[in-house]
Amino acid sequence: MSEEHLMDSEGYYSLKSAAQKIFEVVTQRLDVQTAYVTMRGKHAMTVLSSLNKKEEIVPEGYTIDYNESHCRLIINDQDHVLSTNNLMEDKLTSDMKASAELQVRGYLGVTLRDLKGNVFGTLCVMDKEEKNFDDQDIEFLQTIASVLSHMIDLDQTHYNMGLMNVPIIPITESVSVVPIQGIVDEERADKLMRDVLLYGKEQDIDHFVLDLSGLVVRDQFFSEMLPKLIHALQVMGIDTILTGITPEVAHKEIETNVLSTHKPKTVSNLKTALSTIGFKLVESH
After folding, report:
1. Model pTM greater than 0.85?
2. CATH (residue range 169-277)
């Protein structure tokens, strides 16, 4: 899914913390037993945070296949809402696996987005009893979802800031490794270019090993920044070796063919990279 978020569930501390406080208000205002937030993954929905007032209906960490979830109906709905007074009798939900597992009646869910408008997941409430949710209830839950969107943005900003630094690991006086990890947006790509080229000049580097094992592929970086970085290093007389190439990176290269112009050397791991330069890793005993 193009809108899939790439942080794992453990990264959304602010969202989960804020949701726990907000759920008390939501469950009281809508007179329901359970409220929860889900995150959409590649194939499944995961409950990030939940509040179950009487009995545990939806535990945190609960996952269900996207196609079997009520969240799919919410996200795909024109109004991004699913409201029913009885999940087990509603024609849209009565035959669904999630309805059978949850055994609840009253249900209201709205789409949860980040501040860029990308679908993050859902915000839902449910109850063992039948509930009739009106337009004001829907508007209220959508307002709460918009508040939680700011928490999503805060957590994602913290995550990206944690990846802003460009770690350059010296191996010898003339050889260094650059692990390229996470999401590389325009700002981070510019910093990466500046830091690597400056380090290469100041440290008189002959070989840079670019480790792509942690790179989250983005078209802009792969198609523009990575070839530019390799070319700039070659102009400076610095040889580049690529290692840690993931299936995603390999697939993108087949689609774009952007690296073939500069023909960088590619190897499977750091040990092989150093071996091609003429170094050998020796274990101490």
Report:
1. no
2. 3.30.750.24
